[in-house]
Amino acid sequence: MAVSVLVAATAPAAATTPDPLAPYRGQEVSWGACPFKQRTGPAAQCARITVPRDWAAPSAGTDLQVAISRVPATGSRQGAILVNPGGPGGRGTSLAGALAGLEPKLNEHYDIVGMDPRGTGQEGGTDEGYVCRVPLGRLPQDDDLDARDRSASSIALHQRTPRVLAEACQSDALAPYITTWQTTHDMDLIRALLDDEKLNYLGFSYGTWLGAKYASLFPEQAGKMVLDSSVNFEGRLQAAFEAFPKIDQRQFDRVYAPWLARRFPEQLGKTAAEVRVKWERLRTFFKEKGVPPDVFDSVFVGNGSPRQWLTGALVLTKGAAALDGAAAAPAPAALRSDLDRASRAVFGRPADRLTAADVAADPPEPDYADVPGTRLAVACGDQPTRTASWYKLLSDLQGPAYPLFGWAYGLSEACGFWSDAPQHQLPTLSPRAAKNILVVQGEFDPQTGYEQAEAAARAAGIPMISVAESPFHGQYAVSGNSCVDDLVNGFYLGTGRPAATICPGVPLPGEHQVFPVPGPAGEPSRQAAPAPRDASSNVRERLQDDISAVNRGR
C-alpha cells in the first residue's frame, strides 16, 4: 500500500504532445476571385492554403503557400477531382475552369480542383515561386551552338549551361523541399480541407508520376485516378526525359514529315524522305541567317500539340520560299486560319506577312536569366541522378540514331550536375492502390513515350487506353476523341474501369481522315467517327498546347 501511495504521489500528470500538423489541418479555406483571367469555361474560385516547408519536420522552417482553385459541382456532388497539367512545374489553377467547361457532365458531379504545386508560385499573381537566379555572364555566349559538333570545345560549351543551371537551383535553400514526396503530402492536405475521404485525380505527363506516387504513399485515400500521357511511374522519372530523342525522332519521321508532305508538297517535298532532305537544307539556311542549329532543332522537339506542328510548318515553308527564291505558296485552305492563329501567337504577325527574315530575327529561344526551378528540383531530386559523363555518353549513342535531338539532349541535361541526394524514397504502387487507376496514352506522343506508359501499366496491372496514330500530348478532353472521352467519363461517373482498349485516332490538322502508321499500339479495337469541328475545338487545342508547352522538357 505504501508503494502505491508513493507512486501516486510522485508520478507526473500525463503529458500531451501537441500535434504539429493540427494548424494545417484545421485552417479555414477562404475562397475568392482568382488572380488570373479565365480564358474559357466557368469561372473558378481561388484560395491559398498554408503547408509546412517540410512534411517530415513540420515544426521546422518557414511555411509555404500553395494556390488552389475550385469549380464546384453543378449537380449531385460525388467528390472532387484534382487536376495537374504536368511539368514538373506546371500550374494547374486555370486548368480547373477549362476542363469544367469542356466536360460539363463530369463537373455536374465533381468539383474540379486545380493546384499550383509548391515551388510554382501563383498563376496570375505576384508570387513567382522558386526561381533560380542564373548569372548570365557564366552562360555560353556562342550564337552558333550545334550539338552535332563533337569537338571538345563544343561539348564543353554545351555542358556549361546545364552546370550553371544546376548550381544556381541547388544554391537555393528551398530546393530540397520541392519534390514529389512533399507535393503528394500537400495534395492529401487539400483532400482533407475539402472534407473528402478520397482524392480523385486527373494528371497529364509528369502529373501521371505525381498521381501515381500519391496513390503509392496514400493508398487508403486514393480514389479514381486517370493518368494521361504517362511516364513509367514504376521506374525512373528521368528515363522519360532520356527517351525524348527516340520518341521525337519517331514522331517526326513517321507522322510529322508525312503530314508535311501531304499538306505542303510544293514547298517541302512530296514524300517524307524529300521533306527530311529539305529540313536539313533549311537547318543550314537558317544557320547562315543567324539562327543557331540547336535553336532550329528545338522547334521540332517535344512537338506535341497542333500549334507546335503549325509553328514548325511556318518556319519550314517561310524558309523554303526564301531558300528557293520563290514567292511563298498559298497555304492549304483547310489550314489557313489555323496557321494564321499560330503565326500571330508565336511571331506576332499574320501568316501571310510572315517571312523567313522574321523567323530568323525572333527565334523561339529560352530566357535563362530567371529560371523557374521546380522542374529541375523535382526531376533531379526525386531519385538518384546519372552523372554528366553518363549523359555525354548517352549523347554519343543517341545522336547517330536520333539526330533531331539525340546529339543535344545528353549535353543539355542539368540533372547530370545535380549533387544533392534524394530526401525520401518513392514507393511503387500496391495492388490496392492500382485497382482504381486508368492509364491513357497516344501512340506517337513525342513527350512521354508509348513504351513508358505501357511498361508502367503492365507492371502495376492497370488497363491502358491507347490512341492509335495520335502524335499529340494529352488525350482526354483536349483531343476531341469521343472514344477516349466516353471511356474516361464512364470510369469517373460509375460505369466501371474499362478494359484495355485501342481507340482510333482523330484526323491531323487540315485533314479529314486518319492515315494509318505502323507503331507500337497496334490496330484500334473499336471504331469511332472523327469528331466534327465545333465551338469547343479551339478551346481544346489551346488547352492541349498549354499542357504540351509545360512538358516539353527543354
Features of the shown structure:
alpha/beta; 554 residues; 10-stranded mixed β-sheet; 12 strands; 2 domains; 22 helices; 42% helix; Rossmann fold
Structure description:
It is a single chain. The protein contains 22 helices and 12 strands. With 554 residues, the protein is of the alpha/beta class. The protein folds into 2 domains: 291 residues, Alpha/Beta hydrolase fold, catalytic domain (Rossmann fold), CATH 3.40.50.1820; 204 residues, no CATH class. Strands 1-2-3-5-4-7-8-10-11-12 form a 10-stranded mixed beta sheet, with helices on both faces.
CATH topology (fold) name of the largest domain: Rossmann fold
Q: What is the structural class? A: alpha/beta
Specify Rg, calculated over alpha carbons: 25 Å
What are the low-pLDDT stretches, counting only 5+ consecutive residues below 50?
1-11
Overall pLDDT score? 92
Counted beta strands: 12
CATH superfamily of the largest domain: Alpha/Beta hydrolase fold, catalytic domain
